[in-house]
Design brief:
The complex is a heterodimer of chains A (145) and B (490).
Chain A: H1 7-29, H2 33-37, E1 42-52, E2 55-59, E3 62-64, E4 69-76, E5 83-91, E6 94-103, E7 108-115, E8 122-130, E9 135-144
Parallel strand pairs in A: 3-9
Antiparallel strand pairs in A: 1-2, 1-4, 4-7, 5-6, 5-8, 8-9
Chain B: H1 2-9, H2 13-33, H3 37-58, H4 61-81, H5 83-92, H6 95-99, H7 111-123, E1 128-132, E2 143-151, H8 154-160, E3 171-175, E4 178-185, H9 200-211, E5 215-219, E6 226-230, E7 233-237, H10 240-251, H11 257-287, E8 291-303, E9 310-314, E10 318-326, H12 327-332, E11 339-343, E12 350-355, E13 361-362, E14 368-373, E15 376-382, E16 384-396, E17 403-411, E18 414-420, H13 421-426, E19 430-436, E20 444-449, E21 458-459, E22 466-475, H14 481-489
Helix pairs in contact in B: 2-11, 3-4, 7-8, 7-10
The chains are: A alpha+beta (145), B alpha+beta (490).
Chain lengths: 145, 490
């Protein structure tokens, strides 16, 4: 004689086995960051004194600390899908800020800024990285008196 | 009384050995060199040294410097001038003779024969000159001469100095019971205070006597007198007994053998005691003088490091070491006599802390360690490695307000750096030395070197030491951003 499974047990079975399987299938459907970054091309990157709309003003490698802010501009074409990139600001190899920026297809320009003071004088760099942490470009500059 | 006992209880067995050993060395030097010119000059140098100490104590600056110079030169001169005597003491004798034996002067001469013959020659006014060597070597001073090696006898001496004998004008060298040489030419004295009655023979006798410890007997052809020259003195000897006594004394054999030995034993005992007292006094002045303090900055030496690792950083390079000891010891101590050595055999990669103990510090004997500052040292050990790093220009100063430095390229853009792996791991850029902007007016290029920080970093062998920076300058203008962008890229 066959015994019937009680409905409550089926619900518990579904909750324990079924939900993680669904979640896992969702994760696999979303491509990893490096795959998403495939096809992403950085066409322009500058550190500049100002931004006028989406255009960098006075791109340079030396900035006076009298400037209130400096900007890191980056432009991508194409952008294969919506994704995040990072502007990592370093002063003498020490990370000062990691700014997340979202790109949208088909092309996108974006920028981050850094407030500078007299005490920030010295060599700086900005690493533009994709979501996987791969460095797309390094911009080097100095902040002086 | 308590202090007295405390003082003696502080003396170690090594101190007693130290005093006895040095006293014996001093005593042996006396025994080996006594009666020679070397000994007399050594006493002279000792007196000079004592005078110099007195001059220093009295604050006579110039005098003390002058005496110090003379003493230093004298020590050098003694080695050069008396090299033969020193050699004869140190080389010609066996080890036992140097360490233990008591050298006697030349053995007994045929004193009576010589005395009789000398006065016989004097009576007949036959000139003669006889040399009785002491401990000094005469070979370099005596010229010519014929080897004779005959037993001393009245007839032989008379025949040698007989007028018709070809060698009668020269001197005979008498050693022990034998005439070693005849017809020898002696160096003449240059003194001008000798009496005019003295001829060449007397001058030769004085010449040799003043240069050596030899005794020279002269029989005058003119006056028929007998004279003896010893040291810088020459004196007429009128009686046989006086001559015999002088010759015996020179030969080290007074008439009474027992009396002489007793006298010699007494002399040696006094010398031994004097050596002991002198060395004890010197030892006390060195080790038990007034307590003094001194401090030095001593570089720390790191030893027994694993060859596969390297020291990349230390918290200190020198430590301040405070020492105490007797005034004399402290005054004579030099920083290079103090060593601070840390054993890195158990060091691991990373930072290692060491407490400096007295075992890590080597000091001259008798000096006591009082303090070390800092008492602990931190040593960073790393495994050497290489890394290729991009080079970035470190701009400083002020760029003219109307200019923009749009770009700068370093050639080559990367270089290989050598250093500790953990340091290299934390580095992603290597910077140039500071480059000033103040003089820049237009685009150009310049040569720069790297600023390696920390200093343990090195440019890897085969990599360039200096780099070219091509920089591009643009005037600020009222151009639109798009136009500026185009210009900057050009």
């Amino acid at each position: 004689m066959k015994r019937k499974c009680p409905p409550l047990l089926l619900v518990i079975f579904w909750l324990v086995i079924g939900i993680p399987a669904v979640v896992a299938s969702q994760e696999t459907t979303s491509p990893p960051a490096e795959d998403r970054a495939k096809g992403l091309t950085l066409v322009e990157a500058d550190v500049c004194e100002q931004m006028e709309g989406t255009t960098p003003v006075n791109p340079a490698v030396v900035f006076s600390s009298n400037l209130d802010k400096i900007y890191c501009f980056s432009s991508f074409d194409p952008v294969p899908g919506e994704m995040d990139i990072y502007h990592e600001w370093y002063r003498k190899d020490k990370l000062r800020a990691k700014i997340k920026l979202t790109l949208k297809p088909p092309r996108w320009s974006t920028f981050s800024s850094m407030r500078i003071r007299k005490s920030d004088a010295g060599p700086w760099r900005v690493d533009i990285t994709d979501g996987a942490g791969q460095v797309l470009k390094t911009l080097r500059f100095s902040v002086t008196e | 009384m308590e202090n007295f006992l405390l003082f003696f209880s502080s003396i170690r067995w090594q101190d007693i050995v130290d005093i006895i050993l040095n006293s014996y060395i001093l005593f042996r030097l006396y025994v080996l060199f006594r009666g020679t010119h070397v000994f007399r000059v050594l006493i002279g140098i000792a007196l000079l040294w004592f005078s110099q100490r007195v001059a220093v104590a009295l604050g006579l600056i110039l005098t003390s410097w002058a005496i110090q110079g003379i003493t230093a030169a004298a020590a050098l001169i003694i080695i050069v001038v008396f090299r033969n005597e020193i050699r004869s003491v140190l080389q010609a004798k066996n080890l036992k003779a140097i360490l233990w034996g008591v050298p006697h002067r030349t053995s007994k001469t045929q004193v009576e024969i010589i005395v009789e013959t000398a006065f016989e020659l004097a009576a007949k006014k036959i000139g003669a000159i006889m040399v009785f060597p002491g401990l000094d070597d005469l070979d370099e001073l005596i010229q010519g001469g014929i080897r004779w090696d005959g037993i001393v006898s009245r007839e032989m001496i008379k025949s040698i100095f007989w007028h018709d004998n070809p060698v009668h004008d020269g001197a005979v060298i008498v050693e022990g019971t034998r005439i070693k040489k005849v017809g020898a030419v002696l160096p003449l004295s240059r003194r001008d205070d000798l009496p005019s009655r003295y001829g060449t023979r007397h001058r030769a006798a004085v010449g040799l006597a003043e240069m050596t410890d030899a005794m020279v007997l002269v029989v005058s052809e003119e006056t028929g007198t007998v004279a003896l020259a010893k040291g810088s003195e020459i004196r007429t000897v009128r009686t046989r007994d006086a001559l015999a006594e002088a010759l015996e004394e020179h030969a080290g054999s007074m008439k009474g053998q027992w009396g002489y030995k007793k006298k010699e034993k007494r002399e040696l005992a006094i010398a031994a005691l004097a050596s002991l007292v002198l060395i004890t006094a010197v030892w006390f002045s060195f080790t038990r003088g007034q307590e003094s303090l001194v401090a030095f900055d001593i570089p720390v030496e790191y030893v027994n490091r694993n060859p596969a690792t390297e020291i990349v950083d230390t918290s200190v390079n020198t430590v301040h070491v405070g020492l105490s000891g007797s005034g004399t010891l402290i005054k004579s101590i030099r920083p290079d006599q103090v060593k601070v050595r840390l054993d890195l055999s158990k060091a691991v990669v990373g930072r290692n802390a060491y407490v400096i103990t007295s075992e890590d510090i080597s000091l001259p004997p008798g000096v006591v360690l009082r303090k070390v500052r800092p008492s602990a040292v931190e040593v960073a050990i790393d495994v050497p490695g290489e890394k290729t790093l991009p080079i970035q220009v470190d701009w400083v100063g002020k760029l003219r307000k109307d200019l923009i430095l749009t770009n700068a390229k370093v050639l080559p853009a990367k270089t290989k750096i050598k250093g500790g792996k953990s340091i290299l791991k934390s580095l992603s850029t290597i910077y140039t030395e500071k480059v000033r902007l103040d003089q820049i007016e237009k685009s150009g290029s310049l040569k720069v070197n790297l600023a390696l920080d920390p200093a343990t970093l090195k440019i890897a062998p085969g990599s360039k030491e200096s780099f070219t920076v091509d920089y591009f300058v643009q005037k600020r203008s009222s151009l639109s951003p798009q136009e500026q962008k185009v210009t900057a890229r050009q």
